[in-house]
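Field: sequence (string)
Field: structure_tokens (string)

Example rows 1 and 2, in order.
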Amino acid sequence: MTPRVVALVPARNESDRIVETVASLRAVDEVDEVVVIDDASRDGTGSAALAAGASVLRIPRRAGKGRALEGAVRRLPAAEVWLLADGDLGASASGLGPVLREVLEGRADLAIAVFPPAKGGGFGLVKRVARLAIRAASGFVAREPLSGQRAVTAEALDACRPLAGGFGVETAMTIDAVRAGFRVVEVEADLDHRPTGRTLRGFRHRGRQGLDILLAVIPRALGLR
């Protein structure tokens, strides 16, 4: 029997890209359903996603990425494989096919997409911190420690739950999956998303991201998780 694949797309204020993201994920042959988790958007993200053919879970008050994903997995019917994708991938979301197939064809339990070289962004400090944290906590050497574009079996995802909050979800998931003995691989994929840039907004985003990563890593470093 072909495994059921559900794509989960946490999104907040992504109305300008969510339609293309949904359409491109639906074009991936192996994807059975696309579910957008509208995290208290104020710009019509949920309505746009619904019109594009996605199922939509609406969160009335902002939950953050990790809690949004955890709530969706808890509420939705079971899937054999979950495909996690950010809402700002746009048309490039169709490039997740090779990542998904690593899991579907039995070569990995968790496959993480590696983006092409970035054309912008910050100074890489948060990425370096996440990479060091993953290596120290699990021994896994990650090229793309912050990538939210992932295919994961239900069993591997269950081993990582409850998912870490906010932007710490990816770092924590990698650590937990490796520690639990699951096969984790990174896969180069032709993807593109909105760079945060070296602006005040970008630095604020990376500050929140760094804090969330620390909050996810500390209990794992202390043996509390």
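Row 2 begins here:
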Amino acid sequence: MTLLPDGKLPVQLLRELLSRLAIDDVRVKVGPAVGEDAAAIDRGDHYLLLAADPITFLPQRIGWYAVQVNANDIAAMGGKPQYFLSTILLPSGEATEEMVREILSDIASACRELGCLAVGGHTEVTGGIDRPIVAGAMVGEVEKDKLLTSAGAQPGDMVLVTKGIAIEATAILAQERAREVRESFGDEFQKKSAGFLTDPGLSVVPASAAAVEAGGVTAMHDVTEGGIAGALWEVAEASNVGMVVIESEIPRFWESTKIAERFRMDLLGAIGSGALILTAPEPATESLIAAMGEKGTDAFVIGRVVSKDQGVLMVRGKERLPLPRFTTDEVGRVLSEPARGPSE
């Protein structure tokens, strides 16, 4: 018996399992594959997009959070989120009416923000869990000529990322390790870091819409569990290419860096919803960055797509190193460890 680490399944195992899901339906344009954010189903004049994601860490406002991350998967395919469904599981012996009212209220609030509708799902109190869990599913649409996947990157393309890395990780640790963060950096720092859920925010919907409208994008993928390193690997493997990224060009917020130092965490492997990876030919890059900037999202060139035989590399100073892979997300690792004082 082989025990699996927390987090996403190992890539080789996942690829093996997905290969067994034979799909005999020509309407499935994008099916289950490593690195793809959603399924795309041919509906004649457009593609229907289907995505599903649970909330497995411990953030506040998990109903709002579930809508955001599922909407991101639709947006990362170039589409518009439209309909949300949720399965809400509440822990036996701890569930209260106030708890479920808050979760459903947050779902409704997030749907209003994004212009989608909560259309159904299931809610129950159950044993075997120690906290509320929300598993969401989002349905969306995209015009056929605007569909984007993780598999379109071409050698010579530039690699871009929006906002900065580890936005989600910063907010989670500021919430779940609030006492330690306050002791190390003060109340205002903790409050601002916890607020990363909304500023700079977890949504990639505006950035995606701007990028699609600008044109020139060859691949798009949002950063989630496993951090930017995991997301870059997924794009490289889906597109069957290599990459060279410059570590010093990867944008990081000051608060994220301080929290990473405090918890001895590598931001490259920390969950990072809110950041969007894009690839585009070099001549399209300037207009793409400008288009996203007009919608309030900064974007940064961090590297270039190369041929597969060159590998997936990170330049650190004068060294070229393999881009790291993380078997467990860095936030999950930190939360599994006992709390420590500032000097430990």
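free_text_note (row 2): The CA atoms of residues 68 and 113 lie 10 Å apart.
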